[in-house]
Amino acid sequence: MNIKPLTIGNLIAKIPIIQGGMGVGISLSNLAGAVAKQGAIGVISAAHPGYQEEDFETNTLAANLRGLTKHIKKAKEISGNGIIGVNVMVAINNYIEHVKAAIEAGADLIISGAGLPLNLPEITKGSSIKLVPIVSSSKAAKIILTYWKKHFNKTADAVIVEGPLAGGHLGFKKDNIKYETVNFDKNVLSVIEEVKNFEKEFDKEIPVIVAGGVFTHEDMVKYLELGASGVQVATQFVATNECDAHINFKNAYVNCKKEDIEFTISPVGMPGRAIRNKLTETLKNERVRVTKCYDCLIPCNPASTPYCISSALIKAVKGDIENGLVFCGANAYKIDKIVSVKEILDKLMNKNQ
User: Fold this and answer.
1) N or C: which end of the chain has fewer CB within 10 A?
2) How many beta carbons lie within 10 A of that of residue 221, not counting itself?
3) Radius of gyration, CA atoms only, the chain
4) pLDDT tens, 220-262?
5) What 8-state DSSP symbol labels residue 287?
């Protein structure tokens, strides 16, 4: 198959792969910059990008905005001014501030899910940044794009449809995961068809990118043949030399088995896929008392939440993989070694054969 570049507005990625945004601190400037340098799209997660800043514990928001700015600029330098996106969850507090910081720092696109980014066009008005909502269904795509059309006379620059094999938080109820997995390809087709309606109305191409469970060249080709313009890949990029996470985190992927990957509860009310450890086992029977609130997620209440997800993710990225939360995709067990970003991209593009 002749694999074409991914075009999002005036952005052209010669490799039609987006590296998924992973927080806290898994995908920052080193990983995103390395991916973009190879010609794909690198993505920085806006979930606590300032966790390494000296004043993070006392001045969290300012530290995060400063950290986000630093990482976008550094990723641009590493990549030689390649394409850098920022993944900003709708569910985070100070969503507007993070989006504006990404624009000011020179990011090329905003990827936004974990809720419906209904007001994103208003926040980004006057900028040239590309808007890429993440959806789990054609219904969600229709809601977002209809709202944008009605209120802002604007549409998406691309749409990511994320399936149930993805890592971290999933946009599906746990009881529906099996059904959604079996029917994901149909779901992809329905999103593509829905997006075509808005392509016609706005007379522009809106590429659909498939995320969740894309692991091999054959997986990628399958979705391109279905009509997608590209794929988003995250899990594989954790076990790379360039990934920003601690070596213990990377090795958790290398060493895990299929049966170690399970769903865990999340303060945001969605199922999350993670590697089984001391924390996930504890949470099956009791909550972990919150000693400090980072005011990160809108739906979270420190008094009733089962645990602090920020604290758990920060512990993990720093190397405490027993007491931290190690989010991963369904295929993490297939990873058996740490390689370079280039090797991952070459494999997906079938350049290793």
Assistant:
1) C
2) 15
3) 19
4) 999 999 999 999 999 999 999 999 999 999 999 999 999 999 9
5) P
DSSP string, 1-35: --PPPEEETTEEESS-EEEPP-TTTTSSHHHHHHH
Q: Is the distance from CB of 145 to CB of 117 less than 8 angstroms?
A: no
**pTM check: above 0.90:** yes
Other C-beta atoms lying within 10 Å of the C-beta of residue 266: 24
Which of 35, 94, 46 is CA-nearest to residue 70?
Answer: 46
Q: Which domains does the chain have, with CATH numbers?
A: 6-245+334-348 (3.20.20.70), 256-332 (no CATH)
What six digits make up the tokens of 175?
């009881």
Over residues 44-88, the pLDDT tens digits come to 999 999 999 999 999 999 999 999 999 999 999 999 999 999 999
Instruction: Locate the DSSP E strands across 59-129.
Output: 84-87, 109-112
Distance CA 245, CA 240 (A): 9
